[in-house]
Design a protein that fits this description.
heterodimer; A: 67 residues; mainly alpha; B: 563 residues; alpha+beta; FAD/NAD(P)-binding domain; Glutaredoxin; 26% helix; binds flavin-adenine dinucleotide
């Protein structure tokens, strides 16, 4: 898993990402996000990496919940 | 006399004492039917108008500054002066005043929610071998005072206090302005009118011109307070802190124990309630705790705008600074951007007035500074959208980036608490000559020159001190590659190119020497490398070897002599 920045011009990317959601309802936004995650997962492809990402966030949220 | 900027804030106590006022002096033209003519009239004595007068004076061009108020900036307003600004002001001889009086900083820290540890810290000065730091914090009124002292010593410019430009007529050959004073009205004519009259620009309104862009609905409360506090000299920014829940806050040190505290307030607020001293007190107490003694210097409430005029040049009327473009303050790009306007404009105006360049050169001011303004607006808009997310989903992404930032360095690059002013690289300018030879990108044509420590006849010196105010051919030499004779005394249609040579380390030839190799490194130089540098210290072209005809072409392009 990469922790260091790999995205070229991250500010421009972030701007586009927020633009993607402009003028959408919350439900619509959530659906778009779900699609985006699935597309990005397919782009990554490697199950090992995907599992590692999922594990990272599983730990992350359980940490939050416990305190 | 209305308070300067009473529309956006109120200065109290200590702030007022530190502000100098200037008396109205009856101008000789008042009561005379003759219209006196000046090469340049500048509307507005803010930092940008004053700097314009100073640079024009340095070029030997006479100007009159009309300022409707009787004082320098009431509150601090701008506090962060960027490295490029310091380098520009250094050429006026006041860069070190800012450095001495102000507070130097290079680091910023970002905090999130209740944690006392920052989620991350950043350093804005990658290369420490520079004359000036990334930023100096200093109240705007001090900078204006330094500029005024400078103008008082110059014979070329005159600042006329309490004199307001109230009407103008522009023709093919001149601009005639009507000036209102406490003793009545008079008229002046000029070749060029520089509108440095701020974001509400009456000149812009008189000409019926546009000012387009976005207005953000969020409100921010600024309190500049005087206190003895041991906080570190850093830019500290909080997202969602306990003392301003759901909003942001900023703390920044200025000179003379003044601190800027900036609270985000949200969208729907009542102006009077927020500005009630009791409520301001409570907010500041929640932040500083009960024991800190403080006094107000300036309190102000503001919303953000990111706008610009479609064009900055309208025949003989030229807009500079906030009158031409306005940004939200989080990137400190307002005055810093305005000074780059001045730097870009003055040498072009000088060549034009000497008839050494065609009128087209003013169009290049428009192109280059609109490019710069758009870059500033883009960065300020992005920061504002991050700080003040407009939707639930935008806030979710923002919080996600902040939550990830501690453990995942990539997310730190997404967190945006302000992309602080860096000088504009004029990448798309038609005045630049593209590389034909092989070079790294760092100092590509369009870039403002980067500083480097040198030795000059054995004494320490800085490269930038040897550039500016004229075209320079910067030649990198060594003992086998001395500067060719043809590179000296170069001139094109009356425009001279001065040469500055930098000898490689260990090859000191009595001129300048790059002992520790910084200049060679930054400029990707090899012996024989030649850079053509504009009067505003931007690179116009560069070659591995000096070639008189290629340099002449580039100089013609840089001064709009080619079509
Ligand atoms: C809260 C805040 C924080 C900021 N922080 C920063 C920062 O950290 N760094 C930064 O670079 N910038 C910052 N800025 C922006 C900066 O203050 C402005 O960009 C800067 O003042 C613009 O200078 P100016 O000379 O163009 O205009 P102004 O400073 O507005 O000056 C215009 C002048 O024109 C005069 N005038 C107006 N109409 C007339 C007329 N008809 N006749 C004669 N005179 C007239 C006015 O009285 C005024 O003196 C900040 C601004 C604010 C509000």
């Amino acid at each position: 898993m990469h922790r260091e920045l790999r995205i070229d011009d991250p500010d421009a990317f972030y701007e586009r990402l927020i633009e993607l959601h402009a003028n959408r309802s919350a439900a619509d936004s959530q659906l778009i996000n779900a699609k985006l995650i699935l597309m990005m997962a397919n782009e990554i492809g490697d199950r090992g990496v995907l599992d590692e990402l999922l594990r990272a966030l599983q730990d992350d949220s359980s940490k939050d919940a416990s305190g | 006399m209305p308070e300067k900027y009473s529309d956006i804030g109120q200065a109290r106590g200590a702030g007022r004492e530190s502000r100098r006022t200037f008396a109205f002096v009856r101008p000789p033209q008042l009561g005379s039917s003759k219209v006196a003519h000046y090469p340049v009239v500048i509307a507005g004595g803010g930092p940008i108008g004053l700097a314009t007068a100073a640079f024009l004076g340095k070029a030997g061009i006479k100007s009159v500054v009309l300022e409707k108020h009787n004082s320098v900036s009431d509150g601090s307003r701008a506090i962060c002066w960027a490295k490029r600004t310091l380098e520009i002001l250094d050429r006026l001889g006041i860069g070190d005043h800012l450095l001495d009086k102000g507070v130097t900083w290079n680091t910023g820290k970002v905090y999130f929610r209740d944690s006392r540890d920052p989620v991350y810290a950043f350093d804005l000065l990658a290369d420490k071998e520079q004359k000036y730091p990334a930023f100096v914090n200093l109240q705007q009124y001090f900078v204006e005072e330094y500029l005024l002292e400078l103008l008082a010593e110059q014979e070329f410019s005159e600042v006329r206090w309490q004199q307001e430009l109230v009407a103008l007529e522009s023709s093919d050959s001149e601009v005639v302005v009507t000036v209102d004073t406490p003793d009545g009205r008079y008229r002046l004519s000029c070749d060029y009118l520089i509108a440095a009259d701020g974001h509400r620009s009456p000149v812009r309104a008189m000409m019926g011109l546009d000012f387009e862009g976005r207005v953000f609905e969020d409100n921010f409360l600024i309190a500049d307070v005087r206190m003895k506090a041991g906080f570190p000299v850093e830019r500290r920014f909080w997202f969602d802190p306990p003392f301003n829940r759901g909003q942001t806050a900023l703390l920044h040190k200025q000179a003379a124990d003044v601190w800027r505290i900036d609270f985000q307030l949200g969208r729907d607020i009542d102006r009077d309630t927020v500005l009630d001293e009791k409520n301001v007190d409570a907010k500041i107490r929640a932040f500083l705790g009960p024991d800190v003694d403080f006094d107000y210097e300036w309190v102000s409430l503001y919303t953000f705008h990111c706008r610009r005029m479609k064009q900055f040049v309208h025949d003989r009327v030229i807009f500079v600074g906030d009158s031409a473009h306005l940004v939200s303050p989080f990137g400190a790009r307002g005055a810093n951007g305005g000074l780059q306007d001045v730097d870009n404009l003055v040498w072009k105006l000088d060549l034009l007035m000497q008839k050494l360049a065609p009128a087209d050169i003013l169009k290049s001011y428009d192109e280059e500074r609109i490019y710069g303004a758009d870059e500033n607006i883009m960065n300020s808009t992005r920061s504002t959208d991050f700080i003040s997310p407009k939707s639930e989903i935008s806030k979710a992404f923002r919080d996600a980036a902040l939550e990830l930032a501690r453990d995942y360095p990539f997310a730190r690059a997404i967190v945006n608490s302000g992309r602080l002013s860096v000088p504009c690289v004029l990448d798309e300018s038609r005045l630049m000559t593209a590389d034909e030879d092989d070079f790294t990108d760092t100092m590509r044509p369009g870039s403002p020159c980067m500083d480097a420590p040198l030795s000059c006849g054995g004494e320490p010196a800085w490269l930038l001190e040897h550039l500016g105010e004229r075209f320079v051919g910067l030649y990198f030499s060594d003992s086998e590659t001395p500067i060719p004779d043809a590179a000296r005394g170069l001139e094109l249609g009356g425009i001279p190119v001065d040469t500055v040579t930098v000898a490689a380390s260990g090859q000191d030839d009595g001129e300048m020497c790059d002992e520790n190799g910084n200049a060679y490194l930054h400029y990707d130089a090899s012996p024989g490398t030649y850079y053509l540098i504009r009067p505003d210290q931007h690179v116009a072209g560069r070659w591995r070897q000096f070639d008189a005809s290629r340099v002449a072409d580039a100089l013609a392009r840089a001064t709009c002599q080619t079509t």
